[in-house]
Amino acid sequence: MTTAQAKKDFKITYTSSAAPDMNLFHQYFDEGLQWARAQMGKTYPLFIGGKEVASALKPKAVHSPINSDWVLGHFAMAEVSHVSQALDAAQKAKKSWERLGWVERVKLMRKASSLIRERKWELGAAMSLEVGKSRMESMGEVEESADLIDYYSKIMEENNGYLKPMGPSYKETTSSVLRPYGVFACISPFNFPMALATGMSSAALIAGNVVVFKPSPETPWTGYLLNEIYQQAGLPAGVFNFITGDDAVIGDPLWKDERVDGLAFTGSKEVGMRMIKEFSGKFWKPALAELGGKNAAIVCASSDLDAAAEGIMRSAFGLQGQKCSACSRVYVEKSVAEKFTRKLIEKTKKIVMGDPTQMDVFLGPVINARAVKRYEEAVRAAQNGGEILVGGSVVKGGIFAKGHFVSPTIARLPLDHELFLRELFLPFTAIAEVANLEEAVKEANKVEYGLTAGIFSAKKEEIEYFFDHVEAGVCYANRKGGATTGAWPGVQSFGGWKGSGTTGKGGCGPYYVAQFMHEQSRTVAELGTVPN
Question: What is the pLDDT of residue 12?
Fold first, then answer.
């Protein structure tokens, strides 16, 4: 096997605690990091209609959250006219992309997944610099991105492009076919700039839609690299258009434009609900949105407390808690609460903080200064009526001096504390004691969100009760690798109930691609006949 093939085949997922060969893992990542550092400071254009497009506005310098002195790149700032230009290009390309057929679309998309794997170490290193992800988290995300494309392609194949013959009728032949809506606006967040962008865009493209993609203003570099992958794979001009800029300037003009036929969005509940309410005008249009979470883990008296502490620590503090699936609430049966809490604190104190591009660092920075301020506010709120058990401080000085670093925090709070209800998106989790499983599930269901949930129990009946009564779309039992986190394409679907999602059918699962299409029934009668 060649070195290039070995690097391509080396696979990490979110629940991997180590690679098969950690020496090789770090060697390959270091090579990717060398490449990524060499790219820093370059200027990046918009990409519309198959061409690079400049903007008259001053490019935005994007800095790493690890060290504000590191300028990752200068990115073009789109104006409203660029939004219109991108939508015109998409409209022009949409019919030819649909007529190409699903078989050819899948071939092109599989080229894209292969290219992601070929460049995975470069992509992971760039993402680590841009988001502040650890090596393991970054490489897991790149691998997921490739797997998303392959899984959605597989789903399309298994359903024969969603063309199905219907029941017989007198001298008539009828079929049902799912067809694309047309132009999708895809708007992704900062925390999973590759996987979420790839997931929503690849599903839209495989289904036959064309895309105008706007990444988070915090993470345009990873978005640009995804655009490069798609163009190298051979997507025709106008099928995938890439625009960057301020949300206040181009956000609303993009998704509110009548030329947009569908919307895929991941972000906050407040922003997402406004978009959903205002998106459809003269008639309904699909708005596929994942809108955050306030995810609970339940620790029963029967559970393996070491596994529970490990799974909750990894889930609460992976990517600095900046996951919509992060474990931000823990309900522990009273008889084991003290012992479990002690184990969780011990594991949390052992977390290695620092530059996440470096070997053995688990916890990097939060994304920006606003997140640091939000952290300080959460700590003050916890101290009002509760107790900080570990953490609670902004980390400064030395290697942390020019980054956005905060300590992983565990707070013991009363059950009625408001932090059990509010999504923080921070390395912050709250613990409370409960009398039994029924009370724990009742408390877990109090929030307006319903994304993920986890339980640790040795009793089958307790696990079944949890699955049957908890109000969440993604549920895990006894998951040491991540109590409430770590969904994977074709393995666990990822979609929320209640305020966490709009459709109840998640990404990574068998029903996702179909949501980017609508049904057309086609009946053909034999010439010269009159049906009964």
Answer: 87
Strands 387-390 and 428-434: unpaired
Strands 262-266 and 60-63, sheet pairing: unpaired
Domain boundaries, the chain: 41-291+507-519, 295-489
- The single residue listed with the structure tokens 């706007």 is 214
Provide the phi-psi class of 478: left if phi over 0, else alpha when psi is between -120 and 50, else beta. Answer: left
* 421-447 pLDDT, tens digit each: 999 999 999 999 999 999 999 999 999
Which residues does residue 518 pair with via DSSP β-bridges, in sequence order? 179
Taking the complete model, does pTM exceed 0.70, yes or no? yes
Measured in residues, the chain has a length of 532
CATH number of this structure's domain 295-489: 3.40.309.10
**pLDDT one-digit tens code per residue, 229-268:** 999 999 999 999 999 999 999 999 999 999 999 999 999 9
Residue 290 annotated in active site? yes
Give which of 198, 248, 245 is closest to 226, Cα–Cα. 198
Instruction: Choose the catalytic residue: 324, 423, 443, 462.
Output: 324
d(CA 33, CA 11): 17
Selecting among 137, 144, 218, 290, the annotated active-site residue is 290
Cβ neighbours of 137 (radius 10 Å): 23
Same fold, 41-291+507-519 and 295-489: no
How far is the C-alpha of 391 from the C-alpha of 384, rounded, in Å? 16
Task: Check pLDDT > 70 for residue 532.
Answer: no
Query: In whole angstroms, what is the distance from residue 122 CA to residue 34 CA?
Result: 8
Task: Give me 496's structure tokens.
Answer: 């929320």
Q: Which residues contact 175 (CB under 8 A, 6 or more apart)?
A: 163, 164, 165, 166, 521, 522
For 41-291+507-519, the fitting CATH number among 3.30.365.10, 2.40.30.130, 3.40.605.10, 3.40.50.300 is 3.40.605.10
pLDDT greater than 60 at residue 531: no
